[in-house]
């Protein structure tokens, strides 16, 4: 599939709400939560006022001029927080575009962008049962902490 990766524009930041919802891991056979779940404070931290901090970066993947995925980072006290110098990463793609290498490309582009901006690490939190956990490990993220059914992972830039 032909796709392009580019920086997300400020006018597109409202799309992060959709991608935040898409990023929620729903195990097989479990009913997805209501979309209103993204209004919870522990999830709003990923998107509220995005673009107002020098540590907010976002990239999108496009297919035929339609945004089909996003990866974004910011320094925040989220599930994957390790310190106040390390951005936390979030990524999601619409379901029909998963498993085609687009997510890997988005992450790798973001890692390059963060390296250019002088960051030393990036972190994330992922449920162990999430298929994406294997993707992160394949890219080079390391598990640094286990909390219940989740891992906190980091990548050294």
Automatic annotation (TrEMBL):
Boundaries of every N-acetyltransferase domain copy: 3-157
InterPro entries on file: Acyl_CoA_acyltransferase, GNAT_dom, MshD_Acetyltransferase
Pfam families linked to this entry: Acetyltransf_1
Signal peptide: none
PANTHER family in the record: L-AMINO ACID N-ACETYLTRANSFERASE, UPF0039 PROTEIN SLL0451
Name recorded for this polypeptide: GNAT family N-acetyltransferase
Source organism (scientific name): Sellimonas caecigallum
Classification lineage: Bacteria, Bacillati, Bacillota, Clostridia, Lachnospirales
